[in-house]
Specification:
The protein has 17 helices and 7 strands. By secondary structure, the chain is α/β, with parallel strands linked by helices. The protein has a 5-stranded parallel β-sheet with strand order 2-3-4-1-5, sandwiched between helices. The chain starts with 15 loop residues before the first helix and ends in a 25-residue tail after the last helix. One of its GO terms (molecular function) is ATP hydrolysis activity.
């Protein structure tokens, strides 16, 4: 729509929005007689209540001397702030993990500072400044943190997609070092534009007594981190003890990861808090004495050293809480079935004793027995990446 240059030839029948736009432009750029002539040709005066609406001074196009780029920048800044606040809220919802939360808050502050610098003409922060190492036992929300970080980096424009590509060292390492390097390159290529999360990363170099054997896969990772510095963020995750040995052995790799975040194992109170949250989502009522049983058992598991951590770590921390709650539900169902094997029996039981549907102390005892972690190591078979990074072995 260009009417300002040739208002008479701009006469045409338009929809309500176009008519209003024409009217606003006309009143600002033409003399009153020309504006009335053009507006009359559009038939705008035939629309009911037109005179009343057009008499309202607020019904005008807002003019401004601010450039489009400046207004876009203001909008982008607001959007970035919204993303950061959303991420912080999700982090705060997580149970425990005080040290990891503090590190996230500092990282968020650095991002905000970087955005402010860019908005005032400074250099854009590269992805290199966001590579991270996550140190923590299984079940301590490392993947959850990684997903939130990917969303944040996408939201502020550092990355082009919010997804993370999840894989493990088992999916990458092969008997032949050159094949391991090829697989690493494939994984990094697939993750470009987003976050690559490598769990059990210390297993990328299982032969610490002969580091040269693992040199090719580590070199491939370093090359990808360098080559894709503006397109890829890499997060290496694993248990603290072997990861620290791994990073010490490969000091050149460690220098490319400026952030090291510690994820502490859950306390017995954390396990109960997680259990209560899960039970609430399932609309499951658990007796108070049953929660005390869970707290006591979690404390016992946490007191027993096992492998690189404790038996609670071996049980999976948050995974353990999930397993106990789901197993207690099944124990409750079995108990109810024995008490009332037929539908009418169950209906009568629930009417006469509504509390029978709660998870009882007996149900919790059975669940804790069923989920008691083994005290002997279990060999783990390599699995394909959960996100489908490698659907078939790389050639």
């Amino acid at each position: 729509m260009v009417y300002a240059g040739d208002p008479i030839n701009g006469r045409r029948h338009t929809t309500g929005y176009d008519r209003w736009l024409l009217m606003s432009v006309g009143w600002q750029q033409w003399d009153e007689d020309t504006a009335d002539e053009v507006l009359g040709a559009t038939g705008i005066w035939l629309i009911p209540r037109t005179p009343t609406v057009l008499a309202e001074p607020r019904c005008r196009i807002v003019t401004t001397s601010i450039s489009r780029d400046t207004r876009a920048g203001v909008g982008l800044a607001a959007e970035c702030q919204e993303v950061l606040e959303w991420a912080q809220a999700r982090i705060e919802e997580l149970t425990g993990l005080a040290e990891a939360k503090d590190h996230f808050a500092m990282w968020r502050t650095a991002l905000q500072t970087g955005r402010h610098r860019v908005e005032h003409g400074g250099a854009v922060t590269s992805c290199r400044e966001n590579h991270m190492v996550f140190l923590g036992a299984p079940g301590t929300a490392k993947k959850t943190f990684a997903r939130i970080i990917a969303e944040v980096l996408f939201g502020i424009g550092t990355l082009t997609r919010p997804q993370i590509t999840e894989t493990t060292a088992h999916d990458i390492v092969a008997d032949d070092p050159s094949r391991s390097a090829t697989r690493m390159k494939t994984v990094c290529d697939d993750a470009r534009g987003g976050v690559l999360f490598i769990d059990e990363a210390h297993q990328l170099a299982p032969h610490t007594e002969n580091p040269s054997f693992d040199g090719e896969v580590i070199a491939a990772l370093q090359a990808c981190v360098a080559d894709y510095r503006g397109e890829l963020v890499v997060i290496l995750a694993g248990h603290p003890t072997p990861m620290q040995v791994f990073l010490t052995t490969h000091a050149g790799l460690a220098g490319r990861f400026p952030h090291t975040v510690a994820f502490t194992s859950y306390t017995p109170d954390d396990i109960v808090t997680l259990g209560r949250r899960l039970a609430g989502k399932e609309n499951l009522v658990v007796e108070d004495t049953a929660w005390e049983l869970l707290r006591t058992e979690a404390a016992r598991l946490r007191s027993i050293p096992y492998g690189h951590g404790t038996l609670l770590d071996a049980a999976g921390n948050a995974h353990y809480a999930h397993d106990v709650i789901h197993t207690s539900q099944r124990a409750r169902i079995r108990r109810l079935h024995k008490l009332a094997p037929h539908r009418r029996d169950l209906e009568h039981l629930l009417r006469t004793n509504p509390c029978v549907i709660h998870v009882s102390t007996t149900d919790m005892k059975r669940a804790l027995t069923a989920t008691d972690p083994p005290t002997t190591p279990i060999s783990r078979r390599p699995t394909r990446a959960s996100a489908g990074v490698l659907t078939s072995p790389a050639k």
